[in-house]
C-alpha cells in the first residue's frame, strides 16, 4: 500500500533538485483515491499485486489534470518513471512511460528520491548480498561485477554487510508472500534508478556539485554592505529609458529582421541544411563580388550591420575613398586592432597609430576635437589598450551619425542595390534531394581563408603607404605648376591640404 | 545600442591615487567620481568611520535598494505583451532533425559554432573535444583533454583555434592545423588559471583575448599570447555558470549568470559591475544577449527563462508554464530575436515566442537532459547537445533545419511537433 506523504524527511534543501518537490506533489495528487489514477489488482505469477495502473491511464490523468497534450504528458510521465516515483512491472530496466497497457505501480515514499539522501554503497552492497543469499546466480552480469567491486572495497566491513543482509532476508521471509513480492519490486525499482544498468542513465545524475554552497549564509561584514552601497548608488544614478521606448525598440528590431530570420521566412535560394545544397553559403561569402539583395538591404538597418559584414565594410570603404575620408574608418579599425590585440604588440601598434593618424602632419590625420586629441596624445605616452577609447568613440559616432546616412543615399550604395542579385528559390524533386544528400560539398578550411585574408590585408597596407605619399606628391606638383611657389613654401600648405 | 559604457570615461588618472588606470565610475556622496579598482576596493574595506556601525551601513544599503526599485518602477509604463499585441502571431512550427553527429562516447557538455556557419566544436564529459564540419558530418579534429568534464569550449573568430576547459581549472587554446595527423595537444597554450572549475569561455572580437567564468565565483579576461590576466570581475557570491559577450560595435560589455541567482552586466575595460538583476529563484544556468544587444535572456533551475531589458533596467518577461518544472540548462535566440530556444533537464526543448511570451513548439527526441542549445551564426539551424547515449532513430517530418548531437548515438524527433498554446 502506498502512503501519501510529501514531507522533506528532514533533508537539506538542494535547490537544483527542487523539481523533485513538485514531482512529489503531483504524485501525491495522482494517488488520491477519488481523483487520482484508478488502480486495479493484477495477477502476477501466483500472487496478486494490488494498486496496479496502466501507462495509458497515467498519460490520460496527466493530460487532463495538467492541461497539456498527450505528447507532453508522456514526457512528463517518463520523468516520473525516470526518477522512480512510478516503476514499471514489466521490462523493469527501461525507465520510460509507455502510453499503452503496460503496468506500473506507485513507489512507496520510503524509496522516493528524497533530496539529500544519497543512495549509499553500503546499502547497495547489502541489497546485492541479500539477493545472493536468497538464490545464488540471480544477479545480472553488471550486478555481479558491482558486487565483486564492492566486496573488494568494503572488505573491512563485509561481515557487517553480510549480517545486515541476512537480517533483512529473514525479516522478509516473515512477511506475507504478496507483501514480499511487492517490496522486492519496489526495492529493485529503487536500485534501477540509483544504480542504472549499463547503456542506461540515472535521472538522479545531475552532474557536478557546485563549488560554493548557495544555501550557506554569506558573511555580512561591513565591507559586504559597503560594496552594496557603492554598487547601488551607481545603479540609481544610471540613466534609464521608459519601458515603452525600449520595448518598442525590441519589437521594432524583430519586425525589421523578420524577413532575414531563416526560421520565420525561408532563405533564398534554399536552406542548405534542408536541401543539402550550399548555394546559400556560396552566394553569401565574405568576399563575394555581387552580394544578394537581402544582404544589401541588411546593411541599411544599422551601422553595426554594415560594419559587421565584411562585404558591407568593403563597399563602405569604396564610398569613403570617393569622399577622401577613408582615414576615419582606417583609424577605427586600427583602434579595434589595438583593443583586441595581444598585449605584447600594443606599444608598437600605438606608436604606429600615432604616427599615421594623430601626429600633427600625419599622412592620414583624423579630425577630432582638441580636448580629445589632447587626452589621447597624453595617454599615448604610456599606452594601454583602451588609450584610444575617447578618440575612437568620437570618430565612430561621427561615422554613425553622418557618414553612414550619406552612404545610404550615395550612388555607390544605390548601384549596389541595383546590381545585387535575388536568387530564385530552389525546387528540388525527391530524387534531386537524394542526390544532393550524397554529394554534400566540403568547404575550404577556415584556416586557409584566414591566411588568404591576412595576405590581402598585408598587400593592401603595403600598397596604401606609397599611395598616400604619391597623393601628396601629386598635389604638390599640381600646386607648383599652378602657383609659382618654391617647394619649401609649399610644404606646410601641402600638409594642411592632405589632412582632412 | 544601449551600451552606456560607450560614453563613460574608463581610462585615465584615478581621482584618488592619480595613476593612469582603467576607471570605475562611481558616486561618492552623490558626486560622480572616477576611481581605479584598487581604490574602490580600499574604500570598501576601510574600517568603520566614526558613528558608523554595521547596522547603519545595513540600513543605508536597504534604503538605497528601495530607492533603486523606485527609480526602476517610475519608468515602467507598459508591459511587453501589450507592445506585442500589434505584432502578428507566429504560425505553426515543425522542426526536423537534419544531422546527427556520432562520435562522443559520453555526455556532451558544450557546443560552439564557427563563424563559417557550418563547423562546430563540441566537448564532453570524457575529456574529448571534437571539431566537426556539421554539413558533411565529418570529424575534422579531435583533442583529448587531460581532464574530464570539459564544460566550456569556444571556436575562435578566425576559425584557426579552439579553446576549452573544465575540471582542470584552466582554459587551454589549441591552434588548429591543416595537417590532420598533427597532434594538436603539442601546440596547446594554457591561458586562464582559476581556482576552481571553468564553466564557460568565449573569445572576444579577436583570437587574442579570452573571457572565462569559473566555479570560484569570478570572471576574467586573458591575453592568449602571454597568458596574462587583463581584468578580473568580482561580484558574484557563488559559482558563475555562464557568460555572453554583447553583440555591439563597441563590444565593451558582457553578462554573466551565476548560482547566486544574479545576472550581472560588466564593463570589460574597468571590471566594474554596471547592472545587476536578481529576480530568479534558483541558479542561472545560461545567459544570452538579444541580437540587438539591448536585452538578454536567462535560463535557470527554477524552470523559467526570463528576459531582461538593459535600457529600461528591469525584467520584462518570464517564460514559464505550470507543466514545466525542470530547470532550463541553455538558451539561445534566433537571428531576429523572435524565437527563444531553451533546452531543459526534462529532455525537451521548448521554443518560446519572445514578444508574446507563449510557447510555440516543444521538441522531443533526446533521452537525457539537454545540456546546450546553439543557433548557427546565420540563423539557418540550431544544434542541441545532450547527455544521452542511447540509440533511437526514427522517422522524421518536414520542417526547418535543426540538428542534434548526442553522447554516443543519435536521437531523432519521434513525435510530430505541435504548436501549443
UniProtKB/TrEMBL annotation, chain A:
According to the record, the signal peptide region is none
Q: Which GO terms describe its cellular component?
A: cytoplasm; neuron projection; plasma membrane
* Gene Ontology biological process: G protein-coupled receptor signaling pathway; intracellular signal transduction; negative regulation of signal transduction; regulation of G protein-coupled receptor signaling pathway
What are the protein's UniProt keywords?
Signal transduction inhibitor
- Gene3D superfamilies on file: 1.10.1240.60, Regulator of G-protein Signalling 4, domain 2 (1.10.167.10), Transducin (heterotrimeric G protein), gamma chain (4.10.260.10), Winged helix-like DNA-binding domain superfamily/Winged helix DNA-binding domain (1.10.10.10)
RGS domain mapped to chain residues: 302-417
- Which parts of the sequence belong to the DEP domain? 33-108
Which molecular function terms from Gene Ontology are attached? Answer: GTPase activator activity
Q: Which domain of life is it from?
A: Eukaryota
Under the heading InterPro entries, the entry gives: DEP_dom (IPR000591), G-protein_gamma-like_dom (IPR015898), GGL_sf (IPR036284), RGS (IPR016137), RGS6/7/9/11 (IPR047016), RGS6/7/9/11_DHEX_sf (IPR047017), RGS_DHEX (IPR040759), RGS_sf (IPR036305)
Q: What is this protein called?
A: Regulator of G protein signaling 9a
UniProtKB/TrEMBL annotation, chain B:
Q: For this chain's UniProt record, which GO biological process terms are given?
A: signal transduction
**SMART domains per record:** WD40
Q: Does the keyword Repeat apply?
A: yes
Q: Which InterPro entries match?
A: G-protein_beta_1-5, WD40/YVTN_repeat-like_dom_sf, WD40_G-protein_beta-like, WD40_PAC1, WD40_repeat_CS, WD40_repeat_dom_sf, WD40_rpt
Keyword Hydrolase on entry = no
Pfam families membership: WD40_Gbeta (PF25391)
Keywords noted in UniProt: Repeat, Transducer, WD repeat
Q: Which PROSITE patterns match?
A: WD_REPEATS_1, WD_REPEATS_2, WD_REPEATS_REGION
In the record for this protein, the WD repeats are positioned at 101-142, 191-232, 233-276, 277-318, 330-362, 363-396
Q: How does it assemble?
A: May interact with RGS9; this interaction stabilizes both proteins and increases RGS9 GTPase-activating protein (GAP) activity, hence accelerating the deactivation of D(2) dopamine receptor-mediated signaling.
Q: Which family does it belong to?
A: Belongs to the WD repeat G protein beta family.
**Protein known as:** Guanine nucleotide binding protein (G protein), beta 5b
Amino acid at each position: 500500500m502506498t502512503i501519501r506523504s510529501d514531507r522533506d524527511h528532514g533533508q537539506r534543501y538542494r535547490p537544483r533538485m527542487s523539481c523533485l518537490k513538485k514531482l512529489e506533489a503531483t504524485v501525491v495528487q495522482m494517488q488520491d483515491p477519488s481523483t487520482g489514477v484508478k488502480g486495479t489488482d493484477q495477477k502476477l505469477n501466483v500472487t496478486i499485486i494490488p494498486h496496479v495502473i496502466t501507462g495509458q491511464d497515467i498519460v490520460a490523468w496527466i493530460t487532463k489534470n495538467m492541461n497539456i497534450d498527450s505528447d507532453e504528458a508522456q514526457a512528463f510521465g517518463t520523468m516520473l518513471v525516470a526518477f522512480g516515483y512510478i516503476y514499471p512491472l514489466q521490462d523493469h530496466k527501461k525507465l520510460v512511460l509507455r502510453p499503452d497497457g503496460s503496468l506500473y505501480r506507485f513507489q512507496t515514499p520510503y524509496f522516493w528520491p528524497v533530496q539529500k539522501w544519497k543512495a549509499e554503497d553500503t546499502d547497495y552492497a547489502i541489497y546485492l548480498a541479500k539477493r545472493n543469499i536468497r538464490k545464488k546466480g540471480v544477479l545480472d552480469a553488471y550486478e555481479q561485477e558491482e558486487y565483486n567491486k564492492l566486496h573488494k572495497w568494503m572488505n573491512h566491513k563485509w561481515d557487517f554487510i553480510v549480517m545486515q543482509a541476512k537480517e533483512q532476508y529473514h525479516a522478509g521471509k516473515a512477511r506475507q508472500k504478496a507483501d514480499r513480492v511487492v517490496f522486492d519490486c519496489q526495492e529493485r525499482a529503487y536500485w534501477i534508478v540509483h544504480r542504472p544498468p549499463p547503456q542506461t542513465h540515472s535521472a538522479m545524475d545531475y552532474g557536478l556539485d557546485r563549488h560554493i554552497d548557495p544555501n550557506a549564509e554569506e558573511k555580512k561584514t561591513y565591507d559586504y554592505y559597503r560594496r552594496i552601497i557603492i554598487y547601488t548608488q551607481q545603479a540609481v544614478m544610471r540613466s534609464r529609458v521608459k519601458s515603452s521606448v525600449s520595448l518598442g525598440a525590441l519589437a521594432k528590431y524583430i519586425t525589421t529582421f523578420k524577413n532575414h530570420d531563416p526560421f520565420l521566412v525561408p532563405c533564398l535560394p534554399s536552406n542548405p541544411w534542408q536541401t543539402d545544397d550550399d548555394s546559400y553559403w556560396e552566394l553569401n561569402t565574405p568576399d563575394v563580388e555581387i552580394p544578394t539583395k537581402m544582404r544589401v538591404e541588411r546593411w541599411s538597418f544599422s551601422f553595426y550591420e554594415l560594419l559587421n559584414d565584411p562585404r558591407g565594410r568593403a563597399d563602405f570603404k569604396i564610398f569613403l575613398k570617393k569622399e577622401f575620408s577613408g582615414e576615419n574608418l582606417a583609424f577605427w579599425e586600427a583602434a579595434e586592432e589595438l583593443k583586441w590585440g595581444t598585449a605584447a604588440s600594443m606599444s608598437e601598434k600605438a606608436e604606429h597609430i600615432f604616427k599615421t593618424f594623430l601626429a600633427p602632419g600625419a599622412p592620414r590625420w583624423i579630425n577630432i576635437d582638441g580636448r580629445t586629441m589632447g587626452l589621447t596624445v597624453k595617454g599615448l605616452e604610456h599606452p594601454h589598450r583602451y588609450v584610444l577609447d575617447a578618440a575612437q568613440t568620437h570618430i565612430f559616432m561621427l561615422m554613425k551619425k553622418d557618414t553612414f546616412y550619406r552612404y545610404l543615399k550615395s550612388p555607390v550604395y544605390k548601384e549596389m542595390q541595383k546590381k545585387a542579385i535575388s536568387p530564385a528559390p530552389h525546387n528540388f524533386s525527391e530524387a534531386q534531394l537524394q542526390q544532393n544528400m550524397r554529394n554534400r560539398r566540403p568547404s575550404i578550411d577556415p584556416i586557409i581563408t584566414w591566411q588568404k585574408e591576412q595576405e590581402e590585408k598585408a598587400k593592401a597596407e603595403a600598397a596604401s603607404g606609397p599611395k598616400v605619399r604619391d597623393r601628396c606628391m601629386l598635389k604638390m606638383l599640381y600646386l607648383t605648376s599652378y602657383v609659382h611657389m618654391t617647394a619649401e613654401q609649399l610644404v606646410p600648405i601641402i600638409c594642411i591640404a592632405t589632412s582632412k | 545600442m544601449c551600451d552606456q559604457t560607450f560614453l563613460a570615461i574608463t581610462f585615465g588618472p584615478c581621482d584618488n591615487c592619480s595613476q593612469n588606470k582603467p576607471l570605475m565610475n562611481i558616486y561618492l556622496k552623490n558626486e560622480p567620481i572616477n576611481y581605479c579598482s584598487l581604490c574602490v576596493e580600499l574604500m570598501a574595506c576601510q574600517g568603520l568611520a566614526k558613528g558608523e556601525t554595521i547596522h547603519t551601513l545595513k540600513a543605508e544599503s536597504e534604503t538605497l535598494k528601495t530607492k533603486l526599485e523606485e527609480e526602476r518602477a517610475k519608468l515602467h509604463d507598459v508591459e511587453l505583451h501589450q507592445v506585442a499585441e500589434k505584432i502578428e502571431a507566429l504560425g505553426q512550427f515543425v522542426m526536423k532533425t537534419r544531422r546527427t553527429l556520432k562520435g562522443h562516447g559520453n555526455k556532451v557538455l558544450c557546443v560552439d559554432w564557427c563563424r563559417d556557419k557550418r563547423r562546430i566544436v563540441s566537448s564532453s564529459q570524457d575529456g574529448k573535444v571534437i571539431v566537426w564540419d556539421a554539413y558533411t558530418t565529418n570529424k575534422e579534429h579531435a583533442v583529448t583533454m587531460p581532464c574530464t568534464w570539459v564544460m566550456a569550449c569556444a571556436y575562435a573568430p578566425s576559425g584557426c583555434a579552439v579553446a576549452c576547459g573544465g575540471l582542470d581549472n584552466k582554459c587551454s587554446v589549441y591552434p588548429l592545423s591543416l595537417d590532420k595527423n598533427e597532434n594538436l595537444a603539442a601546440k596547446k597554450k594554457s591561458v586562464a588559471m582559476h581556482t576552481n572549475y571553468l564553466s564557460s569561455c568565449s573569445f572576444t572580437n579577436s583570437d587574442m583575448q579570452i573571457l572565462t567564468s569559473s566555479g570560484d565565483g569570478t570572471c576574467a579576461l586573458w591575453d592568449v599570447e602571454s597568458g596574462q590576466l587583463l581584468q578580473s570581475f568580482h561580484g558574484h557570491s557563488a559559482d558563475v555558470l555562464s557568460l555572453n559577450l554583447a553583440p555591439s560595435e563597441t563590444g565593451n560589455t558582457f553578462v554573466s549568470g551565476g548560482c547566486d541567482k544574479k545576472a550581472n552586466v560588466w564593463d570589460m575595460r574597468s571590471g566594474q559591475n554596471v547592472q545587476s538583476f536578481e529576480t530568479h529563484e534558483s541558479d542561472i544556468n545560461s545567459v544570452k544577449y538579444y541580437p540587438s544587444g539591448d536585452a538578454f535572456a536567462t535560463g535557470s533551475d527554477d524552470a523559467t527563462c526570463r528576459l531582461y531589458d538593459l535600457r529600461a533596467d528591469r525584467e520584462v518577461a518570464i517564460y514559464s508554464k505550470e507543466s514545466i518544472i525542470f530547470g532550463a540548462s541553455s538558451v539561445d535566440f534566433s537571428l531576429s530575436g523572435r524565437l527563444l530556444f531553451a533546452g531543459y533537464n526534462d529532455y525537451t526543448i521548448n521554443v518560446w515566442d519572445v514578444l508574446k511570451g507563449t510557447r510555440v513548439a516543444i521538441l522531443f527526441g533526446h533521452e537525457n537532459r539537454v545540456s546546450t542549445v546553439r543557433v548557427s551564426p546565420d540563423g539557418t539551424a540550431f544544434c542541441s547537445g545532450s547527455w544521452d547515449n542511447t540509440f533511437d532513430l526514427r522517422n522524421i517530418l518536414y520542417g526547418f533545419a535543426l540538428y542534434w548531437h548526442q553522447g554516443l548515438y543519435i536521437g531523432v524527433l519521434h513525435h510530430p511537433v505541435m504548436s501549443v498554446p
